[in-house]
Design brief:
By secondary structure, the chain is of the alpha/beta class. Helix content is 46%, strand content 9%. It has 15 helices and 8 strands. Helix 5 links the parallel strand 4 and strand 5. Helix 7 runs antiparallel to helix 8 and helix 14 packs across helix 15. The two termini are 38 Å apart.
Length: 385
Amino acid sequence: MSLINYITQIQFDFGAIDLLTQECQRLNIRRPLIVTDQGVRAAGLLDKVVSQWHGDFPAAVFDQTPPNPNESAVRAAVACYRENNCDGVIALGGGSSIDLAKGVAVLATHEGGLITFAVIEGGAARVTAATAPVIAIPTTAGTGSEVGRGAILILDDGRKVGILSPHIVPKVAICDPLLTMGLPSGLTAATGMDAIAHCLETFMAPAFNPPADGIALDGLRRAWRHIERATRTPGDREARLNMMSASMQGALAFQKGLGCVHSLSHALGGIDPRLHHGTLNAILLPVVITFNASAPTMVNDEKIARLAQTMGLPAEAASADGRGIGDAVYAMTQSLGLPTRLSEIGVTESMFPTIIERALKDHSHKTNPREASEGDYEAMLSAAF
């Protein structure tokens, strides 16, 4: 049985941030906690959001989100939530802040630690409608977490796990491309490749969901055409709008599942939280696409050919082994100035056994179009090394 569900309210336009108080009032949020990070504060975006809050009570702020959000940070933010008698969360930032906010929304309203709600521990059913409402305001165009049903968080034991539930989907996403205009080029490239990875991998996932496939392909088309412009010309409004849309669309299609790119990048991010998720995805995509190309669902639906057409690649790039698509992704990553090999970012071969062990247990492992064995993961890591 396929679950097809679209999915939450989205306010999308230049200047959409002006609707913040209106959306809080609609959700009966009177005492919000704004969850963000130091980079967003330093860029002046927190001040911009606070200036748009016109409620009866001042908004509390937690601005200590780490680059890869962890259980310790969730606990600290929950303490801030409770100290200020908050009744909802405004997530402001990239995927890290939004995922942290989702963790806060769960732990502030349920008993137990994060492990209680992790999918790999059977925790999805433990997340209930008591979850605090979240309004998500993305400041990057990459994760799409503003419309996603998941939060990726690092437990105290170092595992990077997914908290997945329809109850943690933000009640509204406020997508204002103006908030991404000052994003540095390197971060624009890395987060943009994250969006491309989401569109590619959710399209390859085997679940039957034609609407998600269509959304993913349109998101891929937008991102592939505009990522270089957004990276090299930060003030390009059209490029920023299309990258934000692609990011959102990739996450709207998440309900199909992801695959080996994410099972590996989640494992790597848990081992070394300094590794950027989007950069990891960009490095891993070519080898995973090649691995997936022979899967029955890929062949039967002519997915390689459809991807090549969407990306505007020449006919020879639609080769059945997927190498043409993989080569194009590799070339794009290189063109954007991002690392193209795991060895360039501090990954060592000695990490492989731990990476593989964690990837095999990751929730994204189960939705890859072709089942990956321990040996398959070792081959992928070696090819990307």
